[in-house]
Amino acid sequence: MAKQLADYIWFNGKIIPWKEATVHVMTHAIHYGSSVFEGVRAYNTPDQGTCVFRLQEHTRRLFDSAKIYRMNIPYTMDELNQALIDTIVKNDLKSAYIRPIAFFGDIGMGIKVPLDAEAEVSIAAFEWGAYLGEEALKNGVNAGISSWNRLAANTIPTGAKAGGNYLSSQLISMEARRHGYGEGIALDTNGFISEGAGENIFVIRDGVISTTPKTAAILPGITRDTVMTLAKELGYEIREENIPREAMYLADEIFMCGTAAEVTPVNSVDGITVGKGGRGPITEEIQNMFFGLFNGKTEDKWNWLTPVYK
Ligand code: PMP
């Protein structure tokens, strides 16, 4: 059984004890990777208590991922938003990482998915700290370019957050750690920078902030969108453009971002120190504005926070 991280899980419409939220070994998703999921965070804010960050956008992306795979989710977006909130409340969590997943379960063997197949859906919520470590949030992570490329555009769509895509992420992450790096960065099949194993990437030089485009085999992250909005608010120019590998070696600052990784500076790439090393000043400014959304220092002009305990 998966390690118990909380007391309850929402599973196919009911909240049940963690231990009872199990599936059969013949579950389709285990054999064929047929799942789509989200990673969402809730933060304990001073003014509104526990709030889910960008709930609507995450649920929308879950349904988008399902649409790509013609997966029928037998709930509405509103129902899943409510279920996610109920799961946090039932587990009495102040802050949480939340994992909604829709998957094909007992739909029979084989890759001939019935065209009207219904997905099973579960939502787990539990406490989870800084994904790349507290130390990395402050001093940066040492990253290495992976020998594994991200998926080519006409193979598996990276715009869907599907379970099967994470075989690529696992290869990138394992290789990075074997080589002594904290995280791996992959190139796309054209040789340009794509993204980290589970993070989007921003590169800064001479005050201009660039990030890899949606056509560079990335998952277009919700944190990426948040960072782009916040950086524009701070007056920075943001470019979505192809980034060659050497731009990482010549950058003044680099950071990675994602729901799990939040905003994490990159200290070095392939053993070459980025700028002066550690956390650069623009990265720190963006990081402060990002975490400010949750500690009350950044006004939530965009209605990104959904209070859990009203
Ligand atoms: N790329 C990949 C491969 C990811 O797994 C994630 C994390 N979901 C991201 C980017 C960042 O996406 P988000 O900011 O929406 O969490």
UniProtKB/TrEMBL annotation:
Pathway: Amino-acid biosynthesis; L-valine biosynthesis; L-valine from pyruvate: step 4/4; Amino-acid biosynthesis; L-leucine biosynthesis; L-leucine from 3-methyl-2-oxobutanoate: step 4/4; Amino-acid biosynthesis; L-isoleucine biosynthesis; L-isoleucine from 2-oxobutanoate: step 4/4. It comes from the Bacteria. Gene3D superfamilies: 3.30.470.10, D-amino Acid Aminotransferase, subunit A, domain 2. It is an enzyme of class 2 (transferase). GO terms for molecular function: L-isoleucine-2-oxoglutarate transaminase activity; L-leucine-2-oxoglutarate transaminase activity; L-valine-2-oxoglutarate transaminase activity. Pfam families: Aminotran_4 (PF01063). The keyword Metal-binding does not apply. Keywords: Amino-acid biosynthesis, Aminotransferase, Branched-chain amino acid biosynthesis, Pyridoxal phosphate, Transferase. Acts on leucine, isoleucine and valine. Belongs to the class-IV pyridoxal-phosphate-dependent aminotransferase family. This is Branched-chain-amino-acid aminotransferase.
